[in-house]
From TrEMBL:
PANTHER family attached to this UniProt entry: CELL FATE DETERMINING PROTEIN MAB21-RELATED, INOSITOL 1,4,5-TRISPHOSPHATE RECEPTOR-INTERACTING PROTEIN
Function: Enhances Ca(2+)-mediated inhibition of inositol 1,4,5-triphosphate receptor (ITPR) Ca(2+) release.
Protein name, per record: Inositol 1,4,5-trisphosphate receptor-interacting protein
Gene3D superfamilies, per the entry: 1.10.1410.40
Domain Mab-21-like HhH/H2TH-like: 388-457
Membrane topology reported for the UniProt record: Single-pass type I membrane protein
Subcellular location: Cell membrane; Nucleus outer membrane
Species name: Polyodon spathula
Signal peptide: 1-15
Keyword terms of this UniProt record: Cell membrane, Coiled coil, Glycoprotein, Membrane, Nucleus, Signal, Transmembrane, Transmembrane helix
Stretches that traverse the bilayer: none
Matches recorded under Pfam families: Mab-21_C
Main location: membrane
């Protein structure tokens, strides 16, 4: 009876094992079967030997006790064999699963690499002609556009200051130009200037910042690259004035505030553009205040100008459009921002931050990036091809978006890829004759980033940035910031982005040839200096 139970257990365990291993390769099956036969023969011989020894030693043991002992040994042997087989099955499954995941990643990588390798780009002569005739915008046009926008913006902001209550409203500072127009790689028309306008709270208030990369702040992990702006009274700081929180007496006079100029104690957080029932600055409140202030400012100075000023997008407070009587249109953005301490980093109230909760502000390094491009360009040879590469990629990306719809890839991602390559390659690699090679490098870098689902910020936590280039220490020491994280969390958008990028690579040769004029005798005019 006991032997029968043991044999049944062995058969069941072996059946389970071979059922799991049925998907292995033929040579693996033969090896496993051979090992199992050897193991079974060893177990049978061992069982016979032990039964003989037990029979000799236990002749005088009562039959009931002998049967109970043999039954216990048989069950223990069967259980041990089953445990051994289950461990072997788990080990094989783990190896197979890991191999499948590895093979899947390798297959995806090979697919993307094949697309890149099969993309036949025109030679440097055709690329240079394509860039000069279809993409490049003259420097004079850049300067005229920027000069008009900056002059009008200064006048508008001065009028805004005059209509605001200096004792209650936010204090607006001078505007700063950022983005492609100020980095000389703008591609599409009409030209668009991006201006940021820092603002500060009225006395006796100040801003206190909470960053995702600083310990002690309860910023959620999915808010990387963001922070909160807390509005506090200056008296809460040791360096603030004490007259607002203590009774100085009739004989004491504050040297910072006049006799009739005392800090207001009855201001509510809503009056300071904070989110309801919190001390944190709210983007929605700031956008509403800025839009109303811009409207009042234009009403004050509109009689001086012979054109119309309207809002292009009501969801973006400073998206403005100037329309002349001749029909000519000029568009630009004025975005209210908050300066982070005494640095060139700014918390922005828009610029893709609309998906964040109202009290979380995206941190922009646009000024640092503009300065980094200028700094790196000084080390490059004459007429470097770095901006030409970026402009060609942006042009192809815009054309592809018009065909297949908008994807998760933005011009900012493309600029970030260029910055990484500028930091990693020798300056001599950016000579004008290397345009085709560097363009292919950008394609490969973007492909690899999409495959790995990681595109790190060019400045935050990047060890390749020279220490001579001054950025705040907390950002230099921070963990790298993955710009693709929000994209990857949206599976459908990520898949569409990868597909759209592949299509762009396939269509690139056709688009370039289509937009390139005929080149007689392969002669191309000398390119204009494209230093940033």
């Amino acid at each position: 009876m006991q032997g029968g139970i043991f044999r049944v257990c062995v058969v069941m365990a072996a059946a389970l094992f071979f059922q799991k291993e049925n998907t292995t390769l033929p040579e693996q099956e033969d090896d496993i079967i051979h090992r199992m036969k050897e193991h079974q023969e060893k177990l049978q011989s061992e069982m016979i030997r032990l039964e003989q020894e037990d029979f000799k030693q236990d002749v005088e043991v009562p039959k009931a006790v002998e049967e109970e002992g043999n039954q216990g040994w048989d069950l223990w042997s069967a259980l041990s064999l089953i445990i051994f087989l289950m461990i072997e099955i788990w080990r094989q499954d783990f190896q197979d699963g890991s191999a499948q995941e590895s093979n899947s990643e390798e297959e995806d990588y090979l697919v993307i690499q094949n697309i890149s390798q099969k993309t036949t780009l025109p030679d440097k002569v055709v690329l240079a002609s394509f860039h000069d005739n279809c993409i490049r915008i003259s420097g004079n046009e850049f300067w005229r556009m920027r000069e008009f926008v900056e002059g009008f913006a200064d006048d508008l902001l001065e009028a805004l200051r005059s209509v605001c209550n200096r004792d209650a409203d936010m204090e607006v500072e001078d505007c700063i130009g950022v983005g492609s127009m100020y980095e000389n790689w703008r591609v599409s028309k009409p030209l668009l200037c991006d201006l940021i306008v820092p603002f500060a709270p009225p006395e006796p208030y100040r801003f206190k910042f909470q960053l995702w990369c600083c310990s002690g702040n309860d910023i959620p992990p999915d808010r990387q690259g963001c922070g909160r702006i807390k509005v506090v009274k200056a008296s809460e700081d040791d360096s603030g004035c004490l007259c607002g929180k203590s009774n100085l007496g009739e004989d004491m006079l504050c040297l910072l505030h006049g006799k009739n100029e005392t800090p207001r104690a009855n201001d509510t957080m809503e009056d300071l553009l904070c989110s309801r029932n919190t001390p944190y600055l709210a983007k929605d409140q700031v956008m509403k205040w800025f839009q109303i202030s811009i409207t009042k400012a234009w009403n004050r100075i509109s009689h001086k100008y012979d054109f119309e000023l309207t809002f292009r997008n009501l969801d973006v407070p400073g998206a403005l459009k100037v329309k002349f009587r001749s029909g000519k249109v000029i568009i630009f953005n004025i975005t209210p921002v908050v300066q982070f301490e005494d640095t060139d980093a700014y918390f922005v109230s828009s610029f893709n931050s609309s998906s964040l909760p109202d009290v979380y502000w995206s941190l922009s390094f646009a000024v640092y990036e503009k300065n980094l491009l200028k700094s790196l360009a000084k080390k490059l040879p004459d007429n470097p091809c770095h901006l030409s590469c970026l402009q060609i990629v942006c042009f192809l990306h815009r054309k592809q978006s018009s065909l297949t719809g908008k994807s998760g890839l933005t011009n900012y991602h493309l600029k970030t890829a260029l910055l990484h390559l500028l930091l990693s390659k020798a300056p001599s690699e950016w000579r004008p004759e290397h345009l085709e090679k560097r363009l292919r490098d950008i394609f490969r870098f973007l492909e690899k980033s999409l495959l790995e689902k990681k595109l790190y910020h060019a400045l935050i936590g990047n060890k390749q940035v020279s220490k001579a280039f001054l950025i705040p220490a907390q950002f230099r020491a921070s963990e790298p910031l993955n710009l693709f994280r929000p994209l990857v969390l949206q599976g459908d958008l990520y898949a569409k982005t990868v597909e759209s990028f592949h299509e762009m690579l396939r269509n690139a040769p056709v688009l370039i040839q289509e937009y390139t004029p005929h080149i007689p005798n392969g002669h191309v005019p000398a390119p204009q200096n494209t230093r940033a």
